[in-house]
Design a protein that fits this description.
The structure is a single chain. The protein is an alpha/beta fold. The protein has helices at residues 2-54, 80-113, 119-179, 280-296, 307-321, 363-366, 388-392, 411-424, 458-468, 472-481, 502-513, and strands at residues 72-73, 186-187, 194-195, 199-201, 210-211, 223-226, 231-233, 247-248, 267-273, 302-304, 337-341, 348-354, 377-382, 433-438, 484-489. It has a 7-stranded mixed beta sheet. It has a 3-stranded antiparallel beta sheet with strand order 1-6-7, with no helix packed on it. A 3-stranded antiparallel beta sheet has the order 5-4-8, with no helix packed on it. A hairpin with a 4-residue loop joins strand 6 (223-226) and strand 7.
């Protein structure tokens, strides 16, 4: 009887049990597959949160997208987003394999290696669970791939949009620069080269990293984040008037500071040409002082654009007040004497260049004056005391004129060499203006025979130069070379009330408002 139960009745009952179990197997398989898919999606969500938000060490197996030599953090969609996508792919694949492997290990342990019930029951159930795991793994794989693909598509669209936005912002910035009359960039006041975009120092005092190009792109769209985490505007139009950064020339041989106002307004280049001791420096000082006097009377605002210009003007103003004479300009290349004129949208950054007279005599010296090719208005300072005819017509009566104050260079020679240099640099003189400033009028006051009949009339000054000083050829050459020529008789001195002679005011108005 025992044999019948063991070998016939028992197996028959087991087979009936297995047959009945086959009806519920699909349900168990489906439930286990669904549970695995849910677990895999949950684990993927954890990986997604860890990679994109938490960024803890276990979710950072791929190095950050920031080489050690970079001065700023990259914009998320210019590298880091792709890095996160790769990290998500690696971490997601590892999570998928780990989750499926752990689930299979649990089934093997509970139903095959160390079952808690008889193997006749645990083994069929374990096989069913294995099938459920296989189905779940097969269903979850394309679903996870779809989620990763959707994220990759979003990243690609946003990265493309970021690059397009960067191009649009650069285009807007470029358009603004063109409208400001700066199509080739800003003028460096030290090396006289055009700077397409200055390099800017980080405004944080403890950092001061220098960023070569802060325009929208790899390191930020509207704001760049320095390596010290300081935010820096990427566009000139995003820099408020009180928060403009300190720019530097990007040319390797220079690298010197530029005006803070560079790029924020149109620029005017005003070169002073003349021989040694012709009075260029004193005239430049008087020009700025006359604008300061006009501003005090309610005229256009004026502000010296940099520390060097402010310091130089303070010294020059003292010279004007005591009616002294400035020391000769050094032969070294000058830094522009820069100031901001006007207010609001009418502001202009004016660069006045006072160059040593020796540089206008030597061709090799004038070649270094690259700022000349950017000018459209030129000032030729003509010292009448440098002309021999002046001394032959000098009256015998009255106090003598101190000849040591005269320029030692012939004005015609200086002008001829200067024009030749300017033309070589490609400047269209026929489209340029020339202001001829006859200097040292104050030294000739009271000597009517030595002055034009009407010193404030351009035609009278022209006639005086042509007929009395014998400079007809020079005057005619000026008319032939330049599109417009105007003559002024100037006295670069201040009166007892510390106000500049009116002749300088008329001269400055024509130079800057034409």
């Amino acid at each position: 009887m025992d044999d019948i139960l063991t070998f016939i009745i028992g197996p028959a009952i087991y087979l009936v049990f297995l047959a009945g179990y086959l009806f519920v197997t699909p349900v168990i398989v489906g439930l286990r597959a669904a549970a695995l898919v849910s677990e895999l999606l949950f684990r993927y969500g954890q990986v997604l949160d860890g990679v994109l938000r938490r960024r803890t060490p276990e979710f950072t197996t791929i190095p950050r997208h920031r080489p050690a030599d970079e001065l700023a953090h990259r914009n998320y969609f210019f590298g880091p987003a792709t890095r996160d996508l790769r990290e998500l792919l690696v971490q997601g694949r590892q999570s998928y394999v780990r989750t499926v492997t752990d689930a299979g290990r649990r089934v093997r342990t509970r139903h095959f290696t160390a079952p808690t019930v008889h193997r006749a029951i645990s083994i069929p159930y374990g096989v069913t669970l294995y099938v459920g795991l296989a189905v779940g793994a097969a269903l979850a794989a394309p679903l996870l791939a779809l989620l990763l693909g959707a994220q990759a598509l979003v990243v690609a669209l946003l990265a493309g949009g970021a690059r397009l936005l960067a191009l649009v912002l650069r285009g807007i910035d470029r358009t603004v620069m063109i409208l400001r009359g700066l199509p080739r960039g800003m003028l460096c006041p030290s090396c006289f080269e055009r700077v397409p975009y200055p390099a800017y120092d980080c405004p944080r005092e403890r950092c001061r990293r220098r960023h070569a190009d802060i325009r929208p792109g790899t390191f930020g769209l509207f704001r760049r984040r320095c390596a010290c985490d300081q935010r820096i505007p990427t566009l000139l139009m995003l820099m408020s008037k009180d928060a403009r950064l300190s720019g530097h020339c990007v040319h390797e041989a220079c690298g010197k500071p530029m005006n803070q106002d560079a790029g924020h307004m149109p620029e005017v280049i005003l070169p002073l040409i003349g021989g040694r001791a012709a009075g260029k420096t004193q005239l430049m000082a008087a020009m700025v002082k006359s604008l300061e006097d006009a501003a005090a009377d309610g005229g256009a605002e004026i502000r010296l654009a940099d520390r060097e210009s402010r310091d130089a003007q303070e010294v020059l103003n003292e010279v004007l007040e005591i009616q002294g004479h400035t020391r000769p300009t050094q032969k070294a290349l000058p830094r522009a004497h820069s100031f901001v004129l006007g207010g609001g949208r009418g502001q202009r950054l004016v660069h006045v260049f006072d160059t040593a007279g020796e540089r206008f005599v030597n061709r090799e010296e004038t070649d270094a004056l690259r700022y000349i090719r950017e000018a459209r208005t030129f000032v030729f300072v003509l010292d009448p005391m440098a002309v021999d005819a002046f001394w032959t017509r000098l009256d015998a009566e009255g106090p003598k004129v101190d000849r040591t104050l005269a320029s030692t260079v012939d004005p015609e020679d200086v002008f001829a060499r200067s024009v030749q240099t300017v033309r070589t640099m490609g400047t269209r003189l026929d489209r340029s203006r020339l202001a001829v400033a006859v200097s040292k009028r104050d030294l000739l006051s009271g000597r009517s025979a030595l002055l034009p009949d009407q010193p404030d009339d351009t035609a009278s000054v022209r006639k005086w130069l042509s007929e009395r000083l014998g400079l007809r050829n020079l005057v005619e050459t000026m008319d032939l070379e330049f599109g417009e020529v105007r003559f002024f008789c100037t006295a670069a001195v201040a009166d007892g009330k510390n106000r500049v002679d009116p002749s300088v005011t008329t001269f400055v108005d024509w130079c800057l408002n034409g």
